[in-house]
């Protein structure tokens, strides 16, 4: 009998090593339609962009980006989802192990009439103590084990593991998005500070022009048209400042919220005007295939495809027999001393097979195959979108840098023209209309250079994010303990994950 049970267990373990359904195979870059090189000029040597914000050499920017990584509420939600996915994996792994439960009981039976002792009270009342009852003690232990003969349990764990890893990459994608939003709004804020400074500088010059025009009108050298033009020009310039200040306030408020603070928390720190952060002149882009390893959204889509593929095996396993083994041990005694005198037990192995279900199980297989096909299409689409992001960012950066060079020339020329026009107007060699045009061109050139510089920095930020910068792409983010996520930090611990031996069943 013992030998037969051992043979049964060995046979079930051997069957449990089998798995139905397709084994997942990662797609190659060629199968995903990834070209060998970008269609726009790009440096073929990739760079380590894990902490790309340090390349802008702006301590305030670096501090805000790192603060957002630990305090942003969107990141905290992504960490919570990652923890949920981890617990789903733990629950899935538990199905590989047997379940064990125990029970214990005590029962007291009393003989309330007769058979007991009695005594008489002083008033003559007879009291029956009801003694002579019996005790009953019981202890039981039961176990059950679901044997995944055709790999349904292994496939379920495989799917849960892929979903957990996908959640880790989803967290990284949220992290990159928040980092880019912080950097982008910081550039916007510094750019608006520069535009406000440009407007106020022009306003000071226009105040002088208005005063000069007033003197010339009083002297009878020109008509009041000059002073009215000067007054109108000054008012138009002054009117742009409140709008710029409103936009600046919105950018600073957004930075406060992104870093997990009140909207106005950063206003004192950013009140001092600083230049727009400027990154390095060139960025090592690498080749398109690098995107598959660096972009967390691409890797998340790949893991989602792996999970969908494993679910096909889970659905197919339902078409075949399922084996469950249960056993129990029980003992009953009338005293604790004799609890082990009589022990009974049982072992049962049951095999179930679906005979008729109207085609529901096969339909579930086809459904999972359709889900996997959709996941593959989504994976390919995200890869192509990632390459599109990189190429668009490269073009945006090169064009912004070209505009910055041209606006620098335009500003130099406009500044010289404005100086000459101002000097000529004071000498009466030109009219105020010409001076007005030159002053307007100077302000436009200043703002154009400021905007081009901000656009170049924003494009460089977008390029870093499009390349997958901002996290360690060599690792898979793991869920942190709850005390970290709910306390002072919400940053998962990135580690390289491996498949535990218990998952190979």
Calculate the terminal CA-CA distance, rounded to whole Å: 26 Å
What characteristic shape results from the CA principal axes? elongated
> How much of the residues is beta strand, in percent?
5-15%
Mean pLDDT: 86
CATH topology annotation: Outer membrane efflux proteins (OEP)
Structural class: alpha+beta
Give a short account of the largest sheet. Answer: 4 strands, antiparallel
Counting DSSP E segments of at least 2 residues, the number of strands comes to 8
Give the total of domains.
1
Uncertain runs are 1-6, 484-489, 496-505
**CATH architecture term:** Up-down Bundle
Provide the helix percentage: 55-70%
Protein name: Efflux transporter outer membrane subunit
Biased composition (Low complexity): 488-505
Region (Disordered): 484-505
Organism: Sphingomonas mollis
């Amino acid at each position: 009998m013992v030998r037969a049970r051992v043979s049964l267990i060995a046979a079930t373990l051997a069957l449990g090593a089998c798995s139905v359904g397709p084994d997942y195979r990662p797609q190659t870059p060629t199968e995903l339609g990834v070209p060998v090189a970008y269609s726009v000029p790009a440096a073929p040597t990739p760079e380590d962009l894990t902490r790309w914000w340090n390349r802008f050499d702006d301590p305030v920017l670096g501090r805000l980006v790192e603060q957002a990584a630990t305090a942003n509420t969107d990141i905290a939600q992504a960490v919570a989802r990652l923890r949920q996915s981890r617990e789903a994996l733990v629950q899935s792994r538990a199905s590989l192990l047997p379940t064990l439960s125990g029970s214990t009981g005590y029962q007291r039976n009393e003989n309330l009439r007769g058979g007991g002792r009695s005594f008489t009270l002083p008033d003559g009342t007879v009291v029956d103590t009801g003694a002579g009852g019996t005790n009953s003690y019981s202890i039981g232990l039961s176990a059950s084990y679901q044997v995944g003969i055709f790999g349904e349990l292994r496939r379920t764990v495989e799917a849960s593991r892929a979903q957990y890893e996908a959640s880790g990459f989803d967290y990284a994608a949220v992290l990159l998005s928040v980092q880019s939003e912080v950097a982008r709004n910081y550039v916007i804020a510094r750019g608006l500070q520069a535009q406000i400074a440009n407007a106020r500088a022009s306003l000071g010059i226009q105040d002088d022009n208005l005063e000069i025009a007033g003197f010339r009108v009083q002297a009878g050298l020109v008509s009041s048209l000059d002073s009215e033009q000067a007054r109108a020009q000054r008012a138009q310039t002054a009117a742009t400042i409140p709008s710029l200040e409103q936009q600046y306030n919105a950018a600073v408020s957004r930075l406060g919220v992104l870093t997990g603070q009140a909207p106005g928390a950063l206003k004192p720190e950013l009140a001092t005007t600083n230049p727009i952060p400027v990154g390095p002149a060139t960025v090592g882009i690498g080749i398109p295939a690098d995107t598959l390893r660096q972009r967390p959204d691409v890797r998340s889509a790949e893991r989602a495809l792996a999970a969908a593929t494993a679910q096909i095996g889970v659905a197919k396993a339902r078409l075949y027999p399922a084996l469950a083994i249960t056993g129990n041990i029980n003992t009953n005694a009338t005293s604790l001393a004799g609890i082990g005198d009589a022990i009974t037990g049982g072992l049962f192995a049951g095999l179930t097979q679906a005979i008729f279900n109207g085609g529901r199980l096969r339909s579930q297989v086809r459904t999972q195959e359709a889900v996997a096909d959709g996941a593959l299409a989504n994976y390919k689409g995200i890869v192509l979108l990632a390459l599109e992001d990189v190429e668009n960012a490269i073009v945006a950066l090169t064009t912004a840098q070209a505009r910055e060079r041209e606006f620098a020339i335009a500003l130099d020329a406009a500044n010289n023209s404005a100086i000459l026009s101002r000097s000529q107007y004071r000498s009466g060699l030109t009219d105020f209309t010409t001076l007005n045009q030159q002053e307007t061109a100077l302000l436009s050139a200043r703002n154009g250079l400021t905007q081009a510089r901000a656009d170049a920095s924003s494009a460089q930020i977008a390029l870093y994010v499009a390349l997958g910068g901002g996290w360690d792409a060599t690792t898979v983010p793991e869920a942190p303990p709850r005390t970290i996520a709910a306390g002072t930090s919400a940053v998962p611990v990135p580690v390289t994950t491996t498949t535990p031996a218990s998952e190979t069943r």
